[in-house]
Design brief:
about 375 residues, Aspartate Aminotransferase, domain 2, Aspartate Aminotransferase, domain 1, 2 domains, seven-stranded mixed sheet, three-stranded antiparallel sheet, 12 helices, globular
């Protein structure tokens, strides 16, 4: 066994940087004994909305719930279709089927790994009610290019911003922020995210007051007044402790995202220094994008063997995602088959997520890349 290890993410290092701030914030909540949808939640919603650049933000219990609530607010249900990517976390598609609607998949861009927006319009039918692009691994989809046609057709744009809180893109003199382009943006604050809670938490951002009002009702069983229910909602509330923690961490997010970007640049430099250009393809940051590197996912030769070799050396890596959504057994009834989305399927076979987090040390990155070089020299 190696005498040292490199994890894909080290939350303990990050906690050490904000320990006293976090404890003070949590103690404040404990002293108040107000735990659900109180002043900390309201303050965090306001602060998050300002950062994203939207008028409304509604806290909820998880990123998955954020997606479900968004589709509930849009009244999407049986007979409806929602276009999305086959290369994402399971919740992106399961939120659609939970509402009784049908996911319609579109292949990805092999460079950015994001939804190929050029194919989206080809898949629209009279049943299409929404498009859910995923800003995957911390990089925005150029959703502004879709917006005019979707608005013309009355189709909602729901951004899955679970991995990209704080990401943006610039087109000309205009800046688009993840979660502020479509009618709704769905955010996860799972502990591993760039802005992570210390438990489950989520949020929906919105540019529309009517949708925000609906979401605030839907997250508390469809109630606008205690014990009176206009619709059947769900129990999905952001608690005060998590909101207090997230408020502290939000103050540091831009700094941490920039540290991730520096680590990503260092990886690209090291791949060149070690002559790995033929074996390893770094992620591509699309023109105009500010990639915040929630994950640093490369495409590489002999992926599985490389991963096993690195694990023996004490270096942990992850595969996102080993089986595309259209090939998951639970979605077999949709009628998709292997080969339907070749770009996504190819990425599932050769992608590997390397360690990345704000506190990642330069010497740890060099150790990792030198181990990769040793593997390919064998």
């Amino acid at each position: 066994m190696p005498d040292r290890r490199l994890p894909t993410l080290d939350l303990k290092r990050n906690y050490a940087r904000v320990r006293e701030e976090i404890r003070e914030a949590v103690d404040k909540v404990l002293e108040s004994q107000h735990f659900i949808l109180g002043p900390e939640v309201r303050a965090f919603e306001e602060e998050a909305a300002r950062m994203v650049g939207v008028p409304h933000a509604v806290g909820c219990a998880s990123g998955t719930d954020a997606l479900v609530l968004a589709l509930m607010a849009l009244k999407i249900g049986p007979g409806d279709e929602v276009i999305t990517t086959p290369y994402s976390f399971f919740a992106t598609a399961s939120c659609i089927t939970r509402q009784g609607a049908r996911p319609v998949f579109v292949d990805i861009d092999p460079e950015t790994y994001n939804l190929d927006i050029g194919q989206v319009l080809e898949k629209i039918t009279p049943r299409t009610k929404a498009v859910i692009p995923v800003h995957l691994f911390g990089q925005m989809v150029p959703v502004e290019g879709l917006l005019p046609e979707l608005q013309k057709r009355g189709i909602a744009l729901v951004e899955d911003t679970a991995q990209a809180f704080g990401a943006c893109r610039q087109v000309g003199d205009r800046i688009y922020r993840a979660g502020a382009v479509g009618e709704l943006g769905c955010i996860s604050f799972f502990p591993t995210k760039n802005l992570g809670a210390y438990g489950d938490a989520g949020m929906i951002t919105s540019t529309r007051e009517d949708l925000a009002k609906s979401l605030r009702s839907l997250r508390v069983h469809g109630s606008t007044e205690t014990y009176f229910h206009d619709v059947v909602g769900m129990n999905s509330r952001l608690d005060e402790i998590q909101a207090a923690i997230l408020r502290v961490r939000l103050r540091h997010l831009q700094e941490w995202n920039e540290e991730r970007r520096q680590a990503a640049a260092r990886y690209a430099l090291l791949f060149r220094e070690y002559g790995l250009q033929e074996q390893v393809r770094p992620p591509v940051e699309a023109a105009g994008n500010t990639h915040i590197y929630h994950q640093y996912v490369v495409r590489c030769r002999e992926r599985d063997a490389l991963q096993a070799y690195l694990e023996k050396e004490g270096i942990s890596t992850r595969v996102y995602y080993p089986l595309c959504l259209h090939l998951q057994p639970c979605f077999s009834g949709l009628g998709y088959a292997e080969g339907d989305f070749p770009q996504a399927e190819a990425l599932s076979r050769d992608s590997l997520a390397l360690p990345i987090f704000p506190e990642l040390k330069a010497e740890e990155q060099e150790w990792l890349v030198s181990a990769m070089a040793e593997f390919y020299r064998r």
